[in-house]
Amino acid sequence: MKKLRDILKEQFKDEKFKEDFYRGLEKTRIATEIAYYREKRGLTQAQLAKKLGTSQSTIARLEDPFYDNYSLNTLRKIAKVLDLELIVSLREKDERAQEEFTPIADSNTQQKTNRKSNKKRGSKPLISIH
């Protein structure tokens, strides 16, 4: 039985698949992080919308992993209202794929490192776009 890493390695030979894969990761991360931090702050979509001066349906759209029309300005507003730091970064795709599919033990180590890093920055959570 093939491992996911091996299957993806084969699929990544197709540039279109690779591009779509990374685009999907990007959108899913953004949508998931908005919903996660909104819920962590105890806000409904309607409450967040009110704070942003928009509609609940707009928040629902921003939390949809298939939505792909985010603007930095909108993400900045969300970060401000939710008391988050917005981080935008670029990095090598191969590095990203490697990080995405590391064993759970490695992921746990990374989470501990991130928590220590967050404490140094004042414990503010992040919305990150990679």
TrEMBL record:
UniProt entry keywords in alphabetical sequence: DNA-binding
Entry GO terms, CC: cytosol
Domain HTH cro/C1-type, residue spans: 34-90
Protein name stated in the entry: Transcriptional regulator
InterPro entries: Cro/C1-type_HTH, Lambda_DNA-bd_dom_sf, TransReg_Diox_bact_type
Region (Disordered) location: 94-130
SUPFAM superfamilies tied to this protein: lambda repressor-like DNA-binding domains (SSF47413)
Biased composition (Basic residues): 113-123
GO MF term set: DNA binding; DNA-binding transcription factor activity
